[in-house]
Every structure is written in structure tokens, then in C-alpha cells.
TrEMBL record:
One of its GO terms (cellular component) is endoplasmic reticulum. This is Ankyrin repeat and SOCS box protein 11. The gene is Asb11. Pathway: Protein modification; protein ubiquitination. It comes from Jaculus jaculus. Gene3D superfamilies: Ankyrin repeat-containing domain, SOCS box.
């Protein structure tokens, strides 16, 4: 019975009906998308947003070109922003790349605008198509105020997309205060991402001396970089002698080889000041340096905090604290 012509006839009718319905629905969405584009070109963003909401089936996930709310947030125009929200504009309206007004406010470092958006229901962990969150944007702009307010509203500090890590972005751009706030909120100081490495590795790659110093002070692993490449390998490729000295003073191993079998000294430009600095640290360590490294190894990541609380002569304390 199941293999008879009647069964196959009904089966073909059902498949044809399903395919026709699917094609018709797709055709409507294409038409509405073209209509949305037409309204955007003509400057009628409100009508474009209304149609876009119908296409994507929900206010929270609607699409529109950059709306007046985006512009107000990007420019830090707080009164305009509040007026638009009072008029009922959706705070979670996103562009085709899923950039929200909160993304714009944080990228511009406009904390007051960001706070108003969050208080009115903006998605604190919304992601763009590239995985960037508002927290990532805040770290990009270096706005410690935005970072704090986002964390107050529950922003996630760990990246969903590995290339969009807030702490790595903060370090890359030398925004030390943002980095410290994230670390105070339990971000892993030695978090290694495949393409970026650890925060310390990024700091050495982009020669952000202040970030390197603070990361080492807070207990970052001095030899943990990107795969077999250590932070000292990254520093050796650059020109900052100060970073080389910092890493060496905190016990960086000059003999470690990367995936190509190269030591940091092998990577330094011949005759450069970086090569001279590496050669300076190539010999055996002084007894005082060995003792300091031993103390830091015993105390772990809390070394800086613990040493400050010890009742020691001031010169000795300063030596242990690398001051």
C-alpha cells in the first residue's frame, strides 16, 4: 500500500505544497528587504525600521540602518538620546552588522549615554557580527567609566569570540586602567587565545610598557606567551629595551626556543640595543636577583600585595617590589 501510486501521488503533492509555501515566504522577505533599502535611501529610517521588524520577527532583534538613536549615542548627545527613548524608539535596534546604540556609546566613551541605554533595557552583552560586545568597545576606546557601568549591569568579561577579547584589546591599546578593572573582576591574567596569546604577550608585541609592568606586578606568568613563543620572543622582535629589562628582571628564561627553534636572542636585530640588553642578561643571575625571584615564586600572584604588608626595612621592600 505504501509503495503504491496513490501514496507517491500524495507525497509529491505534499512536497510541492511545502516548496511553494517556502518559496512564497522567501519572496515576501526579499521584497520587504528591498522596500526597506528604498526607504533608507529616501531617508525614511522610521518606516525602514518598521518594515525591518516585520522581516526579522521581533523588536529585540530588528534591523535598521544607523538610526537617530545610533547617531545620538555615538556623538554623546544625552538629551537627544533620552528624548528618542521617551518617544518609544527601541534601544536594541541594530544595524546590518548588529551594532547597537550601546556599542556606539561605549566606542565613543560616552558613559552617561551608555548608562541611560542600559537602564532602559539595552542588551549589555549584545554582539556584532564580528563578536564585539559593548565591553570590548569600551576597552577599545579606553573608557574606564564605561567599563565600570557595563560590569555593574552584568557584562561578561570572557570573550565568546576569541578575537574580540576585552582585556586583550585594552592591553593592545595601552589602556591600563581598563585592564586593571577587568583583572579586578576575576579575568584570567594568563588567558591565552590562539591568535593573540596572553595579555602579557600582546603588551610586549605592541610595546605597551605600562601594561607590561602592571601585568608582571600583578603576577602574570613571565614565560607564558603564544604557544611556544614567549613574551620575551615578542619583545626581542621590537625595539623596547625597557620591556626586555622588565621581563628579564622578573625571571624570563632567555634560553627558551619557539616553534622555529629560535631563542629571543636569535630574533633580535644584530647590533641593536635590544640585542645588547639580551646579552647583558645572558650571564648568571646575581644572588639578590635569585632571592627576589624565589620570594615571588613562593608567594605566587599575590606577591605584590603580600610584600607591601610585610614588616621589612623600606630599602628591602622596595627592592622586592622592583621599585
Amino acid at each position: 500500500m505504501e509503495d503504491g501510486p496513490v501514496f507517491f501521488g500524495f507525497k509529491n503533492i505534499f512536497i510541492t505544497m511545502f516548496a511553494t509555501f517556502f518559496f512564497f515566504k522567501l519572496l515576501i522577505k526579499v521584497f520587504l528587504a528591498l522596500l526597506t533599502h528604498f526607504y533608507i535611501v529616501k531617508g525614511n529610517r522610521k518606516e525602514a525600521a518598521r518594515i525591518a521588524e516585520e522581516i526579522y520577527g521581533g523588536i529585540s532583534d530588528c534591523w535598521a540602518d544607523r538610526s537617530p538613536l545610533h547617531e545620538a549615542a555615538a556623538q554623546g548627545r544625552l538629551l537627544v538620546l533620552k528624548t528618542l527613548i521617551e518617544q518609544g524608539v527601541n534601544v536594541n535596534l541594530v544595524t546590518i552588522n548588529r551594532v547597537s546604540s550601546l556599542h556606539e556609546a561605549c566606542l565613543g566613551g560616552h558613559m552617561a549615554c551608555a548608562k541611560v541605554l542600559l537602564e532602559n533595557g539595552a542588551h549589555v552583552n549584545g554582539m556584532t557580527v564580528h563578536g564585539a560586545t559593548p565591553l570590548f568597545n569600551a576597552c577599545c576606546s579606553g573608557s574606564a567609566a564605561c567599563v565600570n557601568v557595563l560590569l555593574e549591569f552584568g557584562a561578561k568579561t570572557q570573550p565568546v569570540v576569541q578575537q574580540a577579547s576585552p582585556i586583550h584589546e585594552a592591553v593592545k591599546r595601552g589602556h591600563k586602567e581598563c585592564m586593571e578593572i577587568l583583572l579586578a573582576n576575576n579575568v584570567n591574567i594568563n588567558q591565552e587565545l590562539p591568535q593573540l596569546g596572553t595579555p602579557l604577550y600582546v603588551a610586549c608585541t605592541y610595546q605597551k610598557v605600562d601594561c607590561v609592568k602592571k601585568l608582571l606586578e600583578l603576577g602574570a606568568s613571565v614565560d607564558h606567551g603564544r604557544r611556544l613563543d614567549t613574551p620575551l620572543h615578542a619583545a626581542a622582535r621590537k625595539t623596547s629595551v625597557e620591556i626586555v629589562h622588565l621581563l628579564a628582571d622578573y625571571g624570563a628564561n632567555l634560553k627558551l626556543r619557539n616553534a622555529l627553534g629560535k631563542t629571543p636572542l636569535d630574533l633580535a636585530a644584530p647590533g641593536s640595543s635590544v640585542e645588547d640588553a639580551l646579552l647583558f642578561h645572558k650571564g648568571p643571575l646575581a644572588l639578590s636577583q635569585l632571592c627576589r625571584l624565589c620570594v615571588w615564586k613562593c608567594l605566587g600572584q599575590a606577591s605584590h600585595q603580600v610584600i607591601q604588608q610585610l614588616h621589612l626595612p623600606e630599602p628591602l621592600k622596595k627592592f622586592l617590589l622592583y621599585q
